[in-house]
Amino acid sequence: MRPTGKKSPADWRNWIVYRQLRPRWWRTVAGPWAASLSDKGFKRLLGLPKGDDEAAQELHERLRLRFFFHPRNRKDFFLNVLTSLQPFDDILEEAEETVQNRFDTLGSGLVDLGQSVDWQKDFKSGTSWPLESSHTLDVLQLGRPSDVKVPWELSRFHQVWWLGKANWVTGNEEYARKFESLVADWIEANPLNRGVNWTIAMEAAIRACNLAAGYFFFCESRSISSSFWIKFFRSLYQHGKFIENNLEYAFVRGNHFLSNVAGLVVLGVLFRDHDFGRRWFQWGVEQLETEMRRQVYADGVNWEKSTTYQRLVLELFVVPTLLAEQNGHTFSTPYHDRLRKMFRFVASYQRPDGTIPLVGDADDGRLFRMRRKDDINDLRHILAVGAVMYEDPELRNVAGGFRQDALWMMGGEGFEKFRLIRKEAVPLTSVAFPEGGFYILRNENTHVFVDAGDIGMDGRGGHGHNDTLSFEFWADGAPLIVDPGTFTYTADVRMRQRMRGTTAHNTIMVDGEELAEFSGLWSISSDPTRPEVLSWRVDNYMTDLVARHHAYDRLHMSVQHRRRFTLLHETGHLVIEDILEGSGEHVGVASLHLAPNVEALKLAERSVVLKRNDARYEVVFSDGIVTMEPDIYSRSYGVKETSQVVRVVIKGTVPLRLTTEIGRA
User: Of 45, 57, 178, 484, which sees the most CB atoms within 10 A?
Assistant: First the structure.
């Protein structure tokens, strides 16, 4: 069954409870009570001893075996493997940057934030949000160059991983003291229900998961006071109550609601000695099963139709799944079948050089970011986890080696399992994901990623772009023709809409009309594309895909775009045949966006050579007016590079035909 946004009676009931009744209860009763909870009241709530030292010690004993790792559990093994995966100096450098309050956040580059962090400030634009009631704040501030993702990202506390690893490998308590001071400062500067960091449950959930990891790094530190740990767990309890009463439930749900679920599973494990913790956990694991069916197609593609959000959603399933199973829960076989297919889909588009096609939104979102300097678009870290979970040779092969995610979440047992997975050569054959609408044409040296599906989320759009029948072309070790990426959300609304528009993708725009009309920054009025795959054929010599969409049926003189991709396996030669069919006269603009290190030179009227270092590729068009223009490329959120785009204009009475041939020169 395909995921849909159709509304059942249960959906309506949940919407009323989760989006109406609970938030109102939170704002008027439960929230003010939780915000006024003192350390003394928290200890009484949990049945802890009155003294901070005794209470903290009891918490330490309760929690010791509940997380993925603990300093008493094979710490030497963790350190030996860690230093083989990440250079010692690199571990220290990332931690020292954090000690000095130097952060690289969403394309900012390393920025010194001074003696104390302003947690309410987008330091890139200088905009701050007032420390007022969170539900009254204008988070997006459209029309201003602000980006709320900057304070949110800082407050997700990925930095606990960098401090924790450095503390473990050196024993230097400076990193423990920095953890305490950062977290204590955040708690003091972000009182519950006030300020920008309590505006949505997703941010509270991701922060809670990372803070939980921080606890298990530093729980035996001699430098951290017992009184801090009481405040720390009181804050985690407040996080859980906030998430539970401010769920981002919707009829068309995505990664936001799933992050709420993941956060409550993790917090439920920590607080499982109490009724509220058991309630969080049980509700969370039930929702994981539901959301797997709701948000993920049977072929493993997440319905938000983004290759980078596929990774985030995968993390949001994997982390609570592994933690729940470690604590005695068993998920259904269909759940694991679909989860494994999610890994398989990622493995299919992860290219050997560590790059991926940037299809759909890419905002660098992660649940755990264990190493700051890792390439944000290299997803092999999560594939190593999948390889161990399912003892899967294909995932092991693409992962290339054991990775930190697998180390910290699966420990020594995971390391041994990974080592024992049989190594086998997996042939790079073309593969289809028909429910998700993605098709991959490939051989050993060529990788063509085609989006032949809908825009996303059952017509809502979400993080999908106007990219139906667009493609990326990778050859001989590097990208050649690319999707330009995302760059920004709210800081520049015009740029946001440009980067998700039709001409920002390698497809054809007809009569200057978008494939789908935008109704917001993450939504479309409707999805008129109704894509069809007419033919998919793979043999020893070639892969052939024929697809069509109906986005332009809505024009006064309707047009359908039919596109055929043919990849010749022996040479890696790609032929694209476009036909605009229907009625009337029309203008079509085809685009080829080039990777930043690729230079386009016009050879003849309809011939272009693409240069990348010593490699040369010739692109020949059968018709049209060919031009080259400056372009931009964003490989990571907030990062922009110059590039080029090749445009081809065809016009006249339909049918209009354009053949594009791409091959080595």
Answer: 484
